[in-house]
UniProtKB/TrEMBL annotation:
GO MF, one example: transferase activity
Keywords of the record: Transferase
Secretion signal, residue range per the UniProt entry: none
Region listing for Disordered, in residue ranges: 41-61
Record flagged with keyword Transferase: yes
Species this protein is from: Sphingobium cyanobacteriorum
A family per Pfam: CoA_transf_3
EC code(s) of this entry: 2.8.3.-
Name listed for the protein in its UniProt record: CoA transferase
């Protein structure tokens, strides 16, 4: 059973790749009816972003990549060619019966088909129209294309990620995950929920202009704020943080662990675990600000101490002392973590072609409107007939005519 939180909200999702489909998926997880619209024959570009591709029940690869599966659960799937007048008209009909419209086409493209906000607003004044683009609806870069890595470079995220200059492997580095896409999807879903709340109070829909560049820059948060008040450009610190010290990885005799002991209480506990309690009263390190000022001296000492024992030995001692710490897990290790198992972050759904499909669970937990079992990402066009019948009341003759005209 799906969540009741957004029950009765219909989302028309014309988006592709990651940021916008991820946004629509979040709304679907929360109980909205999401209708994903793709190109006939080809579908969302992300279906081809493999390997790996999903195997069917017989072990043969399908056309759906893991990339596509990651951001399209809890959706109904349609194929519509909006470049055909009949296809554009069909989508306008659906928009007239929807609460939210999500798209990530280049600025101005959908206006050619009467699928822009101003056109749809005439049909449905209550519509929340969310456009997610690389650079936003205006400005000198508005017409440019762009992808996550471009925005990580442009917004400054790469400049603060990676090892410092002057050390082996030093230099700006892209965050491994498509982080700007994910963050933009989260920002956009919050904006849509706020717009729905406003509409409930006023009856007024609105246009939401989301730009990946804006979201990437906003996500730099305290890095940027530190720069704005100091004028000092943040340096790269590899796996080190910009808060209290220590907050970073340390190499043990066998593998790395991550430690955060930024408060005086935590730092004191850490020094006792390390067998060097005098470090906590050392005038260079006895306050948070002093440890930040003498970062390099302190980290050199800690590096030499952690190298003396294995990660498991240190982690057991640190846990007993209530010092936050973790092994540096790869993705396979994550699912062996007892807390991850307890929180049931690995879920399963039944895919019509593959059978059992392991997926990540939405991390939101709500007491009154819990998120239920997910429906699998749709196969290409799987709900064409059902949506046209259920939402628009089309009969078999009309659906067959659309199919014969290659609209579906």
């Amino acid at each position: 059973m799906s969540s009741e939180a957004l029950k009765g909200i219909r989302v028309l999702d014309l988006s592709r790749i990651l940021a916008a489909p991820f946004c629509a998926q979040l709304l679907g997880d929360l109980g909205a009816e999401v209708i994903k619209v793709e190109r006939p024959g080809a579908g969302d570009d992300s279906r081809s972003y493999g390997p790996p591709f999903l195997d069917d029940a017989d072990g043969n690869p399908t056309r759906d990549a893991g990339f596509y599966l990651s951001c399209n659960r809890n959706k109904r799937g349609m194929t519509v060619d909006h470049s055909k007048p009949e296809g554009a008209a069909l989508l306008r009909e659906l928009a007239a019966k929807s609460d939210v419209f999500i798209e990530n086409f280049r600025t101005g493209v959908l206006a050619k088909y009467g699928l822009d906000y101003e056109s749809l607003k005439e049909l449905n004044p209550r519509l929340i129209y969310c456009s997610i683009t690389g650079f936003g609806q205006d400005g000198p870069y508005a017409a440019r294309p762009g992808y996550d890595g471009v925005f990580q470079a442009m917004c400054g995220m790469m400049s603060v990620s990676g090892l410092p200059d002057g050390v082996p492997g030093g230099g700006p580095m892209k965050v491994g995950v498509s982080m700007v896409d994910i963050l933009t999807g989260l920002y956009a879903s919050s904006a849509i929920l706020a717009a729905l709340r406003h509409r409930d109070n006023s009856g007024e829909g609105q246009f939401i202009d989301m730009a990946l560049l804006d979201c990437g820059l906003a996500s730099l948060s305290h890095y940027v704020q530190n720069y704005l008040i100091s004028g000092v450009v943040p340096e790269r610190r590899g796996n080190g943080g910009f808060g209290g010290i220590p907050s970073q990885t340390f190499m043990c005799s066998d593998r790395e662990i991550f430690i955060v002991a930024s408060t005086n209480k935590q730092f004191g506990a850490l020094t006792r675990v390390l067998g060097e309690p005098s470090l906590a009263s050392d005038p260079r390190f006895d306050q948070v600000q002093k440890r930040i000022m003498h970062r390099d001296e302190l980290l050199a000492i800690l590096d030499s101490l952690f190298a003396r024992r294995t990660a498991t030995e240190w982690l057991e001692a640190l846990e007993a002392a209530d010092v936050p710490a973790s092994p540096v897990n790869d993705v396979a290790m994550v699912f062996d973590n007892p807390q991850v198992k307890h929180r049931a972050m690995l879920a399963h759904t039944h895919h019509p072609v593959a059978g059992d499909l392991p997926i990540l669970r939405n991390p939101i937990r709500m007491s009154a409107t819990p998120i239920g079992e997910a429906t699998p990402p749709p196969t290409l066009g799987q709900d064409n007939d059902a949506v046209l019948r259920d939402v628009l009341g089309y009969d078999d003759v009309r659906i067959a005519a659309l199919r014969a005209a290659a609209v579906l």
